[in-house]
Amino acid sequence: MKSTAGICLLFLITICFKANAQSFFFKGFQPYLSHLQQEALPNGDLIIAGILNNSIIINRLDACGNIVWSKEYSSQLDVDIVGLKVDKNQNILLGGNLLLKGNRKAYLMQVSQDGTLNYYKYINTNTADIAYSIDLNSKNEVYIYFKINIGQAGPNSDNTLAKFSPSGQLIWIKKYGFTGIWGQMCSSDDNGVLITDSWSIVKINKDGTERYDKIANLPEHCIIDNRNELTINDIDKDFYINMAKKRIKQFTGR
Known about the structure:
By secondary structure, the chain is mainly β.
């Protein structure tokens, strides 16, 4: 039994062959990345994303902390990140807010496992909005949860949920009547979502219908399908991808 346990332990240890391995975060030389997000992959790799000078920086590190690749995605827009997810095909999903003509817009971005940009889209509502979270369901479909017209309506702005296919095509987008401030969203086992805000815990089915509101004992909420009213704008042509290896060398001393 003792010998068997020793053999099993060997399979749990990751061996690092590079004695001088340095990562993006090394001895204090790392740049200041705001809105930092990270997600681990099944093979032990780590995806780290953040904002630097209005650019999105995504790093892939192996299980030993070595940089597999690092890329800078710059659209010359003020952006933040509220969520990072990795789907079953190891595509990397980012969601957050970008500033366009003075108004925040919720965006969704997907890059492949080697860092190639698949799509980068924002939701144009003609109002100032704020994105709170993104998540994936078991079918690799993507949800982004945000509030519409936050600039004028404030706490009375509309909670909104958009659902996208794995390739970034809009499936539906709906606006809901519960209006608690802030909020977070996560997917559920039935491929719907749960949303918690300052007033409520709300269950949304995979087709966008509301199942329940568990905290606030409110009348039935009004759900408006906005698919024909809101537009999803693909801004790939205005988006530039630059390899950040020189920047990484500068900050790590490599």
